Protein backbone atom coordinates (compact mmCIF):
# COMPACT_ATOMS: atom_id res chain seq x y z
CA UNK A 1 0.00 0.00 0.00
CA UNK A 2 1.45 3.36 -0.97
CA UNK A 3 0.21 6.21 1.14
CA UNK A 4 0.60 9.82 0.18
CA UNK A 5 1.06 12.45 2.80
CA UNK A 6 -0.13 16.01 2.68
CA UNK A 7 2.13 18.49 4.41
CA UNK A 8 0.87 21.89 5.38
CA UNK A 9 2.85 25.08 5.14
CA UNK A 10 4.08 26.15 8.52
CA UNK A 11 6.26 28.83 9.96
CA UNK A 12 7.07 28.80 13.66
CA UNK A 13 5.26 31.39 15.73
CA UNK A 14 7.98 31.89 18.31
CA UNK A 15 11.58 32.92 17.66
CA UNK A 16 13.00 30.28 19.99
CA UNK A 17 11.85 27.52 17.68
CA UNK A 18 14.07 28.74 14.84
CA UNK A 19 17.07 27.51 16.80
CA UNK A 20 15.84 23.92 16.72
CA UNK A 21 17.21 21.49 14.22
CA UNK A 22 15.21 20.44 11.17
CA UNK A 23 14.22 17.29 12.92
CA UNK A 24 12.41 19.20 15.61
CA UNK A 25 10.83 21.85 13.46
CA UNK A 26 7.12 21.52 13.48
CA UNK A 27 5.50 20.11 10.43
CA UNK A 28 1.94 19.02 10.74
CA UNK A 29 1.17 16.49 8.05
CA UNK A 30 -2.33 15.54 7.17
CA UNK A 31 -3.64 12.16 8.14
CA UNK A 32 -2.21 9.34 6.10
CA UNK A 33 -5.16 7.55 4.64
CA UNK A 34 -5.82 4.21 3.11
CA UNK A 35 -5.47 3.47 -0.56
CA UNK A 36 -9.06 4.43 -1.10
CA UNK A 37 -8.45 7.96 0.12
CA UNK A 38 -5.13 9.07 -1.25
CA UNK A 39 -3.81 12.46 -0.28
CA UNK A 40 -1.42 14.58 -2.26
CA UNK A 41 2.33 14.22 -1.74
CA UNK A 42 4.02 17.56 -1.45
CA UNK A 43 7.74 18.06 -1.73
CA UNK A 44 9.06 20.56 0.70
CA UNK A 45 12.05 22.78 0.31
CA UNK A 46 13.44 24.95 3.00
CA UNK A 47 13.63 28.46 1.66
CA UNK A 48 14.72 30.33 4.72
CA UNK A 49 15.62 29.55 8.29
CA UNK A 50 12.64 28.56 10.40
CA UNK A 51 10.10 28.13 7.65
CA UNK A 52 9.18 25.77 4.91
CA UNK A 53 7.88 26.49 1.47
CA UNK A 54 5.99 23.75 -0.24
CA UNK A 55 5.65 23.03 -3.91
CA UNK A 56 2.96 20.81 -5.34
CA UNK A 57 4.08 17.73 -7.14
CA UNK A 58 0.54 16.56 -7.84
CA UNK A 59 -2.93 17.98 -7.99
CA UNK A 60 -4.68 19.09 -4.81
CA UNK A 61 -7.97 17.44 -5.72
CA UNK A 62 -7.18 14.29 -3.71
CA UNK A 63 -6.85 16.40 -0.55
CA UNK A 64 -10.58 17.03 -0.63
CA UNK A 65 -11.13 13.34 0.03
CA UNK A 66 -9.49 13.68 3.41
CA UNK A 67 -12.02 14.00 6.16
CA UNK A 68 -12.45 17.72 6.86
CA UNK A 69 -12.56 17.09 10.60
CA UNK A 70 -8.91 15.99 10.68
CA UNK A 71 -7.58 19.49 10.12
CA UNK A 72 -9.50 20.83 13.10
CA UNK A 73 -8.17 18.06 15.30
CA UNK A 74 -4.59 18.44 14.13
CA UNK A 75 -4.47 22.17 14.80
CA UNK A 76 -5.77 21.72 18.33
CA UNK A 77 -2.88 19.54 19.45
CA UNK A 78 -0.25 21.60 21.23
CA UNK A 79 3.44 20.74 20.92
CA UNK A 80 5.42 21.43 24.08
CA UNK A 81 9.19 21.42 23.49
CA UNK A 82 11.60 19.73 25.87
CA UNK A 83 9.03 17.85 27.92
CA UNK A 84 9.53 15.62 29.84
CA UNK A 85 13.19 16.08 28.94
CA UNK A 86 15.33 18.09 26.49
CA UNK A 87 14.89 17.12 22.86
CA UNK A 88 11.40 15.69 23.18
CA UNK A 89 8.58 17.54 21.39
CA UNK A 90 5.64 16.50 23.55
CA UNK A 91 2.29 16.12 21.83
CA UNK A 92 -0.21 17.67 24.22
CA UNK A 93 -3.79 16.55 23.61
CA UNK A 94 -5.23 18.54 26.51
CA UNK A 95 -5.76 21.50 24.17
CA UNK A 96 -7.80 19.24 21.89
CA UNK A 97 -10.05 18.42 24.87
CA UNK A 98 -10.72 22.12 25.36
CA UNK A 99 -12.49 22.26 22.00
CA UNK A 100 -15.75 20.34 22.35
CA UNK A 101 -16.28 20.07 18.60
CA UNK A 102 -12.75 18.84 17.89
CA UNK A 103 -12.93 16.35 20.77
CA UNK A 104 -16.29 15.09 19.52
CA UNK A 105 -14.92 14.79 15.98
CA UNK A 106 -12.00 12.74 17.29
CA UNK A 107 -14.32 10.28 18.97
CA UNK A 108 -16.71 10.22 16.00
CA UNK A 109 -13.90 9.29 13.61
CA UNK A 110 -13.05 6.24 15.71
CA UNK A 111 -16.69 5.31 16.32
CA UNK A 112 -17.53 5.48 12.62
CA UNK A 113 -14.69 3.07 11.94
CA UNK A 114 -15.54 0.55 14.65
CA UNK A 115 -19.31 0.63 15.05
CA UNK A 116 -21.00 -2.53 13.82
CA UNK A 117 -17.72 -4.47 13.70
CA UNK A 118 -18.60 -6.67 16.67
CA UNK A 119 -15.95 -5.17 18.91
CA UNK A 120 -16.69 -6.29 22.48
CA UNK A 121 -13.75 -4.67 24.31
CA UNK A 122 -12.08 -1.29 24.23
CA UNK A 123 -8.88 -1.42 26.27
CA UNK A 124 -7.46 1.98 27.23
CA UNK A 125 -3.94 2.61 28.43
CA UNK A 126 -3.52 4.69 31.57
CA UNK A 127 -3.95 7.59 31.75
CA UNK A 128 -4.68 9.38 28.45
CA UNK A 129 -6.17 6.23 26.96
CA UNK A 130 -8.83 6.62 29.68
CA UNK A 131 -9.92 9.87 28.05
CA UNK A 132 -10.48 8.50 24.53
CA UNK A 133 -11.35 4.87 25.22
CA UNK A 134 -14.54 5.18 27.27
CA UNK A 135 -16.43 7.48 24.87
CA UNK A 136 -15.61 5.06 22.04
CA UNK A 137 -16.66 2.05 24.14
CA UNK A 138 -19.95 3.70 25.09
CA UNK A 139 -20.78 4.61 21.50
CA UNK A 140 -20.08 1.13 20.09
CA UNK A 141 -21.58 -0.80 23.02
CA UNK A 142 -18.32 -2.41 24.15
CA UNK A 143 -16.89 -2.94 27.61
CA UNK A 144 -14.13 -0.57 28.68
CA UNK A 145 -11.08 -2.21 30.24
CA UNK A 146 -8.45 0.01 31.87
CA UNK A 147 -4.86 -1.13 31.48
CA UNK A 148 -2.94 0.30 34.40
CA UNK A 149 0.44 0.91 35.94
CA UNK A 150 1.37 -1.58 38.68
CA UNK A 151 -0.60 -1.79 41.93
CA UNK A 152 -3.44 0.48 40.86
CA UNK A 153 -6.01 -2.18 40.06
CA UNK A 154 -7.50 -3.58 43.28
CA UNK A 155 -8.37 -7.09 42.21
CA UNK A 156 -6.37 -9.97 40.88
CA UNK A 157 -4.33 -8.93 37.85
CA UNK A 158 -2.17 -10.26 35.09
CA UNK A 159 0.96 -8.24 34.30
CA UNK A 160 3.06 -7.68 31.22
CA UNK A 161 6.51 -6.21 31.50
CA UNK A 162 7.97 -4.07 28.76
CA UNK A 163 11.25 -2.31 28.01
CA UNK A 164 11.80 1.42 28.38
CA UNK A 165 14.72 3.45 27.13
CA UNK A 166 16.28 2.91 30.56
CA UNK A 167 14.81 0.10 32.58
CA UNK A 168 11.43 -1.61 32.50
CA UNK A 169 7.80 -0.90 33.24
CA UNK A 170 4.73 -3.00 33.66
CA UNK A 171 1.12 -2.89 32.52
CA UNK A 172 -1.69 -4.71 34.34
CA UNK A 173 -5.22 -5.88 33.58
CA UNK A 174 -7.85 -7.36 35.86
CA UNK A 175 -8.29 -11.12 35.64
CA UNK A 176 -11.71 -11.85 34.20
CA UNK A 177 -12.20 -8.47 32.53
CA UNK A 178 -11.64 -9.95 29.10
CA UNK A 179 -12.74 -13.39 27.94
CA UNK A 180 -11.52 -15.73 25.24
CA UNK A 181 -13.07 -14.75 21.95
CA UNK A 182 -13.55 -11.10 22.87
CA UNK A 183 -12.72 -8.81 19.93
CA UNK A 184 -10.68 -5.90 21.24
CA UNK A 185 -9.37 -2.49 20.34
CA UNK A 186 -6.43 -0.96 22.16
CA UNK A 187 -6.68 2.81 22.52
CA UNK A 188 -4.08 5.38 23.57
CA UNK A 189 -3.56 9.05 22.78
CA UNK A 190 -0.25 8.45 21.01
CA UNK A 191 2.03 5.73 19.67
CA UNK A 192 5.76 6.42 19.91
CA UNK A 193 8.03 3.35 20.05
CA UNK A 194 5.05 1.04 20.42
CA UNK A 195 6.35 -0.60 23.59
CA UNK A 196 3.28 0.13 25.69
CA UNK A 197 0.83 -0.82 22.95
CA UNK A 198 2.73 -4.05 22.44
CA UNK A 199 2.46 -4.89 26.13
CA UNK A 200 -1.25 -4.09 26.00
CA UNK A 201 -1.81 -6.40 23.03
CA UNK A 202 0.10 -9.17 24.77
CA UNK A 203 -2.11 -8.88 27.85
CA UNK A 204 -5.25 -9.23 25.75
CA UNK A 205 -3.92 -12.09 23.65
CA UNK A 206 -2.73 -13.98 26.70
CA UNK A 207 -6.33 -14.25 27.87
CA UNK A 208 -7.53 -15.37 24.47
CA UNK A 209 -8.92 -12.11 23.11
CA UNK A 210 -8.43 -11.12 19.49
CA UNK A 211 -6.83 -7.71 19.08
CA UNK A 212 -8.57 -6.33 16.02
CA UNK A 213 -6.72 -3.00 15.83
CA UNK A 214 -4.78 -0.42 17.79
CA UNK A 215 -6.14 3.10 17.60
CA UNK A 216 -4.33 6.30 18.55
CA UNK A 217 -4.94 9.96 17.93
CA UNK A 218 -1.27 10.62 17.11
CA UNK A 219 1.59 8.62 15.62
CA UNK A 220 5.28 9.53 15.69
CA UNK A 221 6.21 7.53 12.59
CA UNK A 222 9.94 8.23 12.88
CA UNK A 223 9.97 6.02 15.98
CA UNK A 224 8.60 3.09 13.95
CA UNK A 225 6.12 1.95 16.58
CA UNK A 226 3.91 0.57 13.83
CA UNK A 227 6.54 -2.09 13.08
CA UNK A 228 6.50 -3.21 16.66
CA UNK A 229 2.87 -4.30 16.66
CA UNK A 230 3.49 -7.82 15.33
CA UNK A 231 1.50 -7.18 12.19
CA UNK A 232 -1.53 -5.82 14.04
CA UNK A 233 -3.14 -2.94 12.21
CA UNK A 234 -2.80 0.58 13.56
CA UNK A 235 -5.28 3.36 12.86
CA UNK A 236 -4.33 6.92 13.63
CA UNK A 237 -5.70 10.36 12.92
CA UNK A 238 -2.63 12.57 12.92
CA UNK A 239 1.08 12.03 12.24
CA UNK A 240 3.86 14.11 13.70
CA UNK A 241 7.36 13.96 12.23
CA UNK B 1 -36.62 12.69 32.18
CA UNK B 2 -36.83 9.13 33.48
CA UNK B 3 -39.62 8.23 35.86
CA UNK B 4 -38.57 7.41 39.39
CA UNK B 5 -39.02 3.69 38.73
CA UNK B 6 -36.70 3.75 35.74
CA UNK B 7 -34.22 5.85 37.71
CA UNK B 8 -34.26 3.36 40.59
CA UNK B 9 -33.73 0.51 38.18
CA UNK B 10 -30.69 2.16 36.67
CA UNK B 11 -29.22 2.99 40.07
CA UNK B 12 -29.77 -0.58 41.27
CA UNK B 13 -27.94 -1.99 38.28
CA UNK B 14 -25.09 0.47 38.71
CA UNK B 15 -24.80 -0.28 42.40
CA UNK B 16 -24.70 -4.02 41.90
CA UNK B 17 -22.08 -3.69 39.19
CA UNK B 18 -19.59 -2.13 41.58
CA UNK B 19 -17.24 -4.66 43.15
CA UNK B 20 -15.98 -4.28 46.72
CA UNK B 21 -12.44 -5.47 47.34
CA UNK B 22 -11.52 -5.89 51.01
CA UNK B 23 -8.18 -4.74 52.38
CA UNK B 24 -7.07 -2.76 49.35
CA UNK B 25 -4.81 -0.79 49.23
CA UNK B 26 -4.26 -1.64 52.90
CA UNK B 27 -5.96 -3.70 55.63
CA UNK B 28 -9.31 -2.38 56.76
CA UNK B 29 -10.17 -0.51 53.58
CA UNK B 30 -13.15 -1.81 51.57
CA UNK B 31 -12.18 -0.61 48.09
CA UNK B 32 -15.02 0.35 45.75
CA UNK B 33 -13.96 -1.02 42.36
CA UNK B 34 -15.72 0.64 39.43
CA UNK B 35 -13.90 -1.39 36.79
CA UNK B 36 -16.64 -4.01 36.96
CA UNK B 37 -19.19 -1.29 36.21
CA UNK B 38 -17.22 -0.47 33.05
CA UNK B 39 -17.59 -4.11 31.95
CA UNK B 40 -21.37 -3.70 31.78
CA UNK B 41 -22.01 -1.42 28.79
CA UNK B 42 -25.62 -0.76 29.79
CA UNK B 43 -24.71 0.11 33.37
CA UNK B 44 -21.82 2.34 32.25
CA UNK B 45 -24.14 4.08 29.80
CA UNK B 46 -26.76 4.54 32.53
CA UNK B 47 -24.13 6.07 34.81
CA UNK B 48 -23.21 8.66 32.23
CA UNK B 49 -26.85 9.28 31.29
CA UNK B 50 -27.78 10.02 34.90
CA UNK B 51 -25.15 12.75 35.08
CA UNK B 52 -25.92 14.10 31.61
CA UNK B 53 -29.64 14.34 32.37
CA UNK B 54 -28.81 16.42 35.42
CA UNK B 55 -26.33 18.79 33.76
CA UNK B 56 -27.44 19.20 30.16
CA UNK B 57 -28.78 22.65 29.37
CA UNK B 58 -27.38 24.14 32.57
CA UNK B 59 -24.72 26.19 30.78
CA UNK B 60 -21.83 24.14 32.14
CA UNK B 61 -18.77 24.91 30.03
CA UNK B 62 -16.15 22.90 31.93
CA UNK B 63 -15.99 19.33 33.18
CA UNK B 64 -12.88 18.85 35.31
CA UNK B 65 -11.91 15.23 35.92
CA UNK B 66 -9.52 14.03 38.58
CA UNK B 67 -6.78 11.62 37.52
CA UNK B 68 -7.16 8.80 36.81
CA UNK B 69 -10.67 7.42 37.31
CA UNK B 70 -12.19 10.86 36.82
CA UNK B 71 -10.80 10.58 33.28
CA UNK B 72 -13.15 7.66 32.64
CA UNK B 73 -16.38 9.40 33.67
CA UNK B 74 -15.63 13.04 32.90
CA UNK B 75 -15.05 12.98 29.12
CA UNK B 76 -18.28 11.17 28.19
CA UNK B 77 -20.22 13.69 30.30
CA UNK B 78 -18.32 16.62 28.76
CA UNK B 79 -18.96 15.35 25.23
CA UNK B 80 -22.67 14.87 25.86
CA UNK B 81 -23.22 18.33 27.37
CA UNK B 82 -20.90 20.18 24.98
CA UNK B 83 -18.38 21.24 27.61
CA UNK B 84 -14.61 21.17 27.55
CA UNK B 85 -12.83 18.46 29.48
CA UNK B 86 -10.01 19.56 31.78
CA UNK B 87 -7.81 16.89 33.34
CA UNK B 88 -6.63 17.54 36.91
CA UNK B 89 -3.41 15.60 37.32
CA UNK B 90 -0.79 14.40 39.74
CA UNK B 91 2.41 16.49 39.73
CA UNK B 92 4.70 16.59 36.71
CA UNK B 93 2.30 14.93 34.28
CA UNK B 94 0.93 17.98 32.48
CA UNK B 95 3.46 19.31 29.97
CA UNK B 96 2.64 23.01 29.92
CA UNK B 97 2.57 25.74 32.56
CA UNK B 98 0.42 24.63 35.50
CA UNK B 99 -1.12 25.85 38.71
CA UNK B 100 -0.92 23.48 41.67
CA UNK B 101 -2.94 22.91 44.80
CA UNK B 102 -1.54 21.00 47.72
CA UNK B 103 -3.79 19.02 50.01
CA UNK B 104 -3.46 16.94 53.16
CA UNK B 105 -3.32 13.17 53.21
CA UNK B 106 -3.64 10.95 56.25
CA UNK B 107 0.16 11.09 56.41
CA UNK B 108 1.78 13.92 54.47
CA UNK B 109 0.51 15.91 51.52
CA UNK B 110 -0.20 15.50 47.83
CA UNK B 111 -0.75 17.91 44.98
CA UNK B 112 -2.98 18.22 41.94
CA UNK B 113 -2.32 20.40 38.92
CA UNK B 114 -4.22 22.05 36.09
CA UNK B 115 -2.95 23.70 32.93
CA UNK B 116 -2.79 27.48 32.95
CA UNK B 117 -5.31 28.82 30.45
CA UNK B 118 -7.47 25.70 30.36
CA UNK B 119 -10.33 27.56 32.01
CA UNK B 120 -11.41 31.21 32.01
CA UNK B 121 -12.85 33.35 34.78
CA UNK B 122 -16.62 33.13 34.85
CA UNK B 123 -16.89 29.65 33.38
CA UNK B 124 -19.29 27.23 35.07
CA UNK B 125 -17.66 23.93 36.02
CA UNK B 126 -18.35 20.47 37.33
CA UNK B 127 -15.73 18.42 39.16
CA UNK B 128 -15.92 14.69 38.49
CA UNK B 129 -14.34 11.72 40.21
CA UNK B 130 -15.37 8.09 40.63
CA UNK B 131 -15.64 8.36 44.40
CA UNK B 132 -15.61 10.85 47.29
CA UNK B 133 -14.03 9.63 50.52
CA UNK B 134 -12.64 12.33 52.83
CA UNK B 135 -13.15 14.98 50.16
CA UNK B 136 -9.54 16.15 50.25
CA UNK B 137 -8.86 15.69 46.54
CA UNK B 138 -12.19 17.18 45.47
CA UNK B 139 -11.56 20.12 47.76
CA UNK B 140 -8.18 20.70 46.14
CA UNK B 141 -9.79 20.55 42.70
CA UNK B 142 -12.43 23.09 43.71
CA UNK B 143 -9.71 25.38 45.04
CA UNK B 144 -7.75 25.19 41.79
CA UNK B 145 -10.79 26.22 39.79
CA UNK B 146 -11.88 28.95 42.19
CA UNK B 147 -8.39 30.44 42.24
CA UNK B 148 -8.87 31.25 38.55
CA UNK B 149 -12.40 32.56 39.23
CA UNK B 150 -14.34 29.66 37.85
CA UNK B 151 -17.78 29.01 39.30
CA UNK B 152 -17.83 25.42 40.56
CA UNK B 153 -21.48 24.52 40.16
CA UNK B 154 -21.35 21.01 41.63
CA UNK B 155 -19.14 18.01 42.37
CA UNK B 156 -20.34 14.75 40.91
CA UNK B 157 -19.19 11.25 41.87
CA UNK B 158 -20.46 7.78 41.21
CA UNK B 159 -19.91 6.71 44.84
CA UNK B 160 -19.89 8.41 48.22
CA UNK B 161 -18.51 6.97 51.46
CA UNK B 162 -20.75 8.97 53.79
CA UNK B 163 -19.02 7.86 57.00
CA UNK B 164 -15.93 9.78 55.93
CA UNK B 165 -17.96 13.01 55.78
CA UNK B 166 -16.41 14.25 52.56
CA UNK B 167 -19.61 16.12 51.80
CA UNK B 168 -19.06 18.36 54.81
CA UNK B 169 -15.55 19.14 53.65
CA UNK B 170 -16.90 20.64 50.44
CA UNK B 171 -18.50 23.43 52.39
CA UNK B 172 -21.11 25.22 50.38
CA UNK B 173 -20.40 23.24 47.20
CA UNK B 174 -23.17 20.81 46.34
CA UNK B 175 -22.34 17.15 45.81
CA UNK B 176 -24.30 14.78 43.60
CA UNK B 177 -23.68 11.04 43.84
CA UNK B 178 -25.39 7.99 42.41
CA UNK B 179 -24.49 5.39 45.04
CA UNK B 180 -23.87 5.70 48.75
CA UNK B 181 -21.64 2.93 50.10
CA UNK B 182 -22.00 2.39 53.81
Automatic annotation (TrEMBL), chain A:
Its EC number is 2.4.2.7. Keywords: Cytoplasm, Glycosyltransferase, Purine salvage, Transferase. Its main location: cytoplasm. It catalyses: AMP + diphosphate = 5-phospho-alpha-D-ribose 1-diphosphate + adenine. InterPro entries: Ade_phspho_trans (IPR005764), Adenine_PRTase (IPR050120), PRTase-like (IPR029057), PRTase_dom (IPR000836). Pathway: Purine metabolism; AMP biosynthesis via salvage pathway; AMP from adenine: step 1/1. Residues 100-226 form the Phosphoribosyltransferase domain. It is an enzyme of class 2 (transferase). The keyword Membrane does not apply. The keyword Electron transport does not apply. It holds the Pfam family Pribosyltran. It is found in: Cytoplasm. Transmembrane segments: none annotated. Homodimer. NCBIfam families: apt, PRK02304.1-3, PRK02304.1-5. Belongs to the purine/pyrimidine phosphoribosyltransferase family. This is adenine phosphoribosyltransferase. It comes from Vitis vinifera. The lineage of its organism: Eukaryota, Viridiplantae, Streptophyta, Embryophyta, Tracheophyta.
Automatic annotation (TrEMBL), chain B:
The keyword DNA repair does not apply. It catalyses: AMP + diphosphate = 5-phospho-alpha-D-ribose 1-diphosphate + adenine. Keywords: Cytoplasm, Glycosyltransferase, Purine salvage, Transferase. PANTHER family: ADENINE PHOSPHORIBOSYLTRANSFERASE (PTHR11776), ADENINE PHOSPHORIBOSYLTRANSFERASE 1, CHLOROPLASTIC (PTHR11776:SF0). Belongs to the purine/pyrimidine phosphoribosyltransferase family. GO terms for cellular component: cytosol. It is an enzyme of class 2 (transferase). One of its GO terms (molecular function) is adenine phosphoribosyltransferase activity. It is found in: Cytoplasm. One of its GO terms (biological process) is purine ribonucleoside salvage. It comes from the Eukaryota. The lineage of its organism: Eukaryota, Viridiplantae, Streptophyta, Embryophyta, Tracheophyta. Its EC number is 2.4.2.7. Its main location: cytoplasm. Pfam families: Pribosyltran. Pathway: Purine metabolism; AMP biosynthesis via salvage pathway; AMP from adenine: step 1/1. This is adenine phosphoribosyltransferase. Residues 41-174 form the Phosphoribosyltransferase domain. Homodimer. InterPro entries: Ade_phspho_trans (IPR005764), Adenine_PRTase (IPR050120), PRTase-like (IPR029057), PRTase_dom (IPR000836).
Amino acid sequence: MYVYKCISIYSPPSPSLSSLSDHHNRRLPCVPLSESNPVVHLRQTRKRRGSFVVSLSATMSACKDQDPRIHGIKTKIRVVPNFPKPGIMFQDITTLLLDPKAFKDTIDLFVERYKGKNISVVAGIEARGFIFGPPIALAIGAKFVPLRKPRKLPGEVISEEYILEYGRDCLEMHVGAVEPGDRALVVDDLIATGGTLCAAMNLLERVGAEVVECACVIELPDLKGRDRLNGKPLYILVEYH
Amino acid sequence: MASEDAQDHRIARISSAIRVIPDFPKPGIMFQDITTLLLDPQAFKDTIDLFVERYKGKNISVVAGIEARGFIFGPPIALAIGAKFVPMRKPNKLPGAVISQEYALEYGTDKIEMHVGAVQAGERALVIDDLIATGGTLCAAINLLERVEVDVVECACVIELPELKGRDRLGDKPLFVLVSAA
